[in-house]
Design goal:
single chain, elongated, alpha+beta, 2 helices, 24% helix, 264 residues, ten-stranded mixed β-sheet, five-stranded antiparallel β-sheet
């Protein structure tokens, strides 16, 4: 029989002490995961939800373009809305306005409705408004245009043509979370005749809603060099004003559309 020595004496061994040590390590690991890992998982899930809604809004923008430019009378799209709420905002529920002035007098005024997604996990907002998709944050003044509207400036050797499209989304107060179906249809709108603006002082203005502000997004869009717009010196925050280039033969084409949201 082997005699007990210094390293073989088990009189001080205790199962209770070993269990407490292992249990403490496990609890510490769970605490570290909860403290550092769980918030990261929530943040990643919120970002995934935002990316999903960005794609959804661009899909809806494509559906609206089919109605307005391809004469499709009706569109239906199934969407999954996660991490927030998708709601419809009628034009009479927001003060944001687009205006076109000729010779200092108002020629055309337009208030667009919108589809707006508000995230429940952070302060981000994604909006489909007047043919464009925006992203903004409640805590910041900035906004970004994720997908642009169909506005054009066509310059040829004989004539310059501005084409501005104004798309109004109308609906009752609708909202959804989870899986739903967005049904939209085109409402007949009287066409506008092209107008000759050669040599005239013509401006386009954007008046933002201070509470849902896409001012920076529209400013960056108006500043695009291929639109040939020049910011007027009277522009102020929440109110952008741009001069059209009317040198030479210049024509202005206004396309106005009304889209009715039947369901979300």
């Amino acid at each position: 029989m082997r005699s007990k020595g210094f390293f073989t004496d088990d009189r001080a061994v205790s199962e209770t002490v070993g269990f407490i040590i292992i249990f403490g390590i496990v609890i510490t690991g769970i605490g570290l995961v909860t403290l550092y890992g769980y918030p990261v998982l929530l943040s990643q899930q919120a970002e995934a939800n935002m990316r999903n809604m960005q794609k959804n809004m661009i899909v809806l923008q494509s559906d609206i373009n089919s109605l307005t430019y391809k004469n499709v009378p009706y569109q239906e799209t199934s969407l999954q809305v996660s991490g927030g709420t998708l709601m419809s905002i009628d034009s009479d529920q927001t003060p944001q306005t687009f205006k076109i002035n000729r010779g200092g007098a108002e020629y055309f005024s337009f208030q667009p409705g919108e589809l707006r997604f508000i995230s429940e996990n952070n302060d981000a907002v994604i909006s489909l408004e007047n043919g464009a998709v925006h992203k903004s944050y409640w805590s910041q003044e900035g906004s970004a245009m994720l997908s642009e509207p169909r506005w054009f400036f066509d310059r040829t050797s004989t004539k310059n043509t501005y084409v501005f499209s104004f798309i109004n989304l109308t609906s009752d107060s609708l909202a959804q979370t989870g899986i739903g179906t967005v049904q939209i249809k085109l409402v007949s709108t009287p066409p506008h005749e092209p107008i000759d603006i050669k040599g005239e002082s013509v401006t386009i203005e954007y008046h933002a809603d201070p509470d849902n502000n896409y001012n920076v997004a529209w400013k960056n869009y108006f500043d695009r060099p291929d639109l040939f717009l020049t910011e007027d010196g009277s522009s102020v925050p929440y109110h952008r004003k741009y001069l059209l280039d009317t040198t030479g033969n210049t024509e202005l084409v206004i396309k106005e559309f009304e889209i009715e949201i039947l369901s979300l």
